Amino acid sequence: MYDLVIRNGRLVTPDRIYEADIAIQDGKYAAFLAAGTKAEAKETIDAKGNYVFPGIIDCHAHLNEPGFEYREDFETGSRAAAVAGCTTLIDMPLNNDPSLMNKEIFDLKMGKISKHSVIDYALWGGLVGDYDDKPDSVKNNMNDLVDLHNCGVAAFKGFTCPNGNLFPTVNMGNVRKALEVLKPYNALCGFHCEEYGQVLEREKEAKAKEGRTNEQKIRDFLDSHDVWTEYVATKNVIDMARATGGRVHICHVSHPMVAQVVKDAIHEGLPITAETCPHYLGFTEDFVFEKGAPAKCTPPMRTKEDMEKMWDYVLDGTLSCVGSDHSPAADEEKDNATKDIWHAWGGLNAIQFFLPMMFDMVVNKKGLSPTLIAKVMDYNPAKIFGLYGRKGAFELGFDGDVVIVDPNKAWKVDQTKLLTKGHVSCFDGQEGKGAPTCTIIRGKVVALDGMYKEEAVGYGEYITPVK
Ligand SMILES: [Zn+2]
In this structure, are residues 162 and 129 in contact, taking their beta carbons and an 8 Å threshold? Predict the structure, then answer.
């Protein structure tokens, strides 16, 4: 007798959709049976008429613990993720104090986050440049990368532009060194690509302008983070991959010109992967003008024409995964009444509607098959971040993760009801069709009909790459 059987669902893989029953035993997929087999189980769930995915992996989320728990912690962020159909998230090393840059901090971080995650999680390790205020021996963390790798981080994240003194910018010397150090381990380095010099210079010039209206300031902000900053940084880190042979991942590609650079590099045979986010696939500059502070993020949303072209690169496999880039803030940090675009927090409250928004865009707005979702939110992220073997596919022995999606379930974002700590989201009022009804991790239901299970708090496990 199985522990759990999910009956009559339409299983979605990158290649096809087929009806089958999923049997889970001891937290793992134990059998995929012809629908209607009526295998005996302690518990059964009927998924008739619904799509079934092997969970959703959010490869790019900032949960802010330790250090900035007033914005988000693992409990609040992961419960919102569970409701959104995520079964695994990969947490970023920054917007933390301290940032995750060595083994000692890894131990400190694990001591906190392991207590209350609802969903399974992997970690990005930090890749930081030179601190101004530290002795030469600890100027950056190049000597800590192998230790962090041995802690099981799924990838390393570096920032090519300013991101505050808690997470110093990497220069190309740091990038090259890190790729050299990590290459023997086949470890992946991901980068926020905006070129330091241009961002610094253009922001300085824009901020110095006097008497600007809010709308003009938004224009200035968008211009100071225009595509050339992203393009140059992306080309530079790709060149470092070319120089070293190290694996590079381009985070949150926002523009087709950048995607083309990635595509060329992949065609050349370089070890490059790249992701994009729902906000670059369904939202534009106009949205930033409309919403103001809540819609501030970098790179920023682009023009409608750019947005439409981005889909070509998702479809041809260049942008092989989609992450939420959930980067939460306290409400006052996103308040249009007190914060203009320059002073508002840069980052979006995005995780709770991650799958519903993507499903609605892919299936309803674009008329594409849900198999694309299985590709960019399951299979590819699992492969890229080394989680394949446990996550990302319906394979015997993999973790018994399941999200059941009702394609007809209508949803509407109400920011006052978000399960995240902050309650300001630029997506407030967005609506669509297609939402998770049930999220299951290793055979256990962690969220049902838009609410997480209280008893699942602390259930989430640390996932390390499968060797
Ligand atoms: Zn991010």
Answer: no
Q: Inform me whether the pLDDT recorded for 165 exceeds 70.
A: yes
Distance (Å) from CA 214 to ligand 1 centroid: 25
Quick one: tokens of 53? Answer: 């995915």
Q: 429: which DSSP letter?
A: T
CA of residue 369 to ligand 1 center, whole Å: 27
Structure confidence by residue, pLDDT tens digits, 342-362? 999 999 999 999 999 999 999
Torsion sign, CA atoms 218, 327, 260, 284: negative
CA of 327 to the centre of ligand 1 (A): 6
Q: Which SS3 state, helix, strand or coil, does residue 79 take? A: helix
Mean pLDDT (the chain) is: 96
| CA 96–ligand 1 middle distance (angstroms) | 12
Q: Where in 81-211 does DSSP place strands (E)?
A: 86-91, 120-126, 155-159, 188-192
Share of the chain above pLDDT 70, in %: 98
**Sheet holding 272-276: strands in order across?**
56-61, 86-91, 120-126, 155-159, 188-192, 247-250, 272-276, 321-322
- Residue 163 confidence class, pLDDT cut points 50, 70, 90: confident
Ligand 1 centroid to 446 CA: how many Å? 25
Q: What residues are paired with 120 via a beta bridge?
A: 88
Cite the beta strand spans of 193-301 per DSSP E. 247-250, 272-276
**Domain ranges across the chain:** 52-384
Kindly give the residue spans of alpha helices, DSSP state H, lying in 249-405.
256-268, 278-282, 285-291, 304-315, 354-359, 371-374, 380-384
Pairing of strands 120-126, 86-91: parallel
d(CA 39, CA 403): 20
Q: State residue 99 phi and psi, 5-degree precision.
A: -70, 155
Mean pLDDT, rounded, for 425-435: 98
Q: Report CA(159)–ligand 1 centroid distance (Å).
A: 10
The dotted CATH code for 52-384 is: 3.20.20.140
Alpha-carbon distance 417 to 137, whole Å? 48
- Angle at 318 (CA atoms; ends 231, 247), nearest 5 degrees: 75
Distance, CA 25 to ligand 1 centroid (Å)?
Answer: 36
Partner residues linked to 275 by β-bridges: 321
On the question of pLDDT at 137 being above 60, the answer is: no
433, 411 in Cβ contact below 8 A?
A: yes
Please state, in angstroms and rounded to a whole number, the distance separating the CA atoms of residues 34 and 425. 42
